Amino acid sequence: MTAQIITKSLDRLVQQCYSRAVAQGALLFTESSVYKHREQGVVFEVRYVPALAKKPNSKPKEKQYAKDFVDPFLPYDEHLHVKQISDTHHLLLNKYCVVPHHLLITTAEFRQQGEPLSEADFTAVLATIDNLSSRNIVFYNSGEESGASQPHKHLQVLPMPEYLDMPPSIGLWLQSMPPVGAVHTSKQLPFAHFGVLFGDSPLLPSNVAAAYQAALSELTIKFGSECSYNMIMTRSAILLFPRRQSSWHGIAINSLGFAGLVLAKTKDEQEFLDRFGILHILSCVGYPHAQ
User: Fold this and answer.
1) What is the pTM of this model?
2) Residue 46 in contact with residue 35, Cβ under 8 Å?
3) How confident is the model at residue 66 (pLDDT cuts 50, 70, 90)?
């Protein structure tokens, strides 16, 4: 069964579900402050969230094999459920969010986080973002060093900050004028990456899946099939970033970090980001471009 057509009322549905979940205490929103950080002429976002300083960082397998592990998506919390996208995927609100309307696309049955994404996954993605009026970043954390925390397979959809036209890393990548439909790397990014530009044609699940598979194949050839990676996607491009470690000097990085949207849990981390630069830190948790 293909993904059901989600009506244009998805905007209103997400807003209604979000407001209701907050009022019921099912969704916990954490306040944060944002400041802009500029590198190579591009604006990056640093979000300061001191409430997360005491939150432990756990990896998917650590959590999955813990005696007290409970899969938060199976069964899902009805208060966080936005819509059944298809018989294979659900759309949920993120229970712990620092940005309103942060969405999760979860598999209806348990699948392992880190499995390659399928055409069905991208069908669910497009059925979601095609029916949201906001610009969005879609991302996937794959593997133990990717910043993933939950073992149940899920993609995430986050509204783009209003002051950004696109994720900063994609903005830098586009400066090298990538060709449409081919895997491309750019010297503008100092860390390893594999990207595909979609072009102006309407996005189809099969085309997006093919672009993802092409980028993943290049990544696997160079870094091996067990390499953790982050994926970010917009309506213009998809990029994959291989990972060698999940954090550097205590600063945890997931796919949003590679998009150019970084979390700082303490003032020390914020100062560290200013001192060393976001691109340098991403090179340290990823792989330097020349490698």
Assistant:
1) 0.93
2) yes
3) low
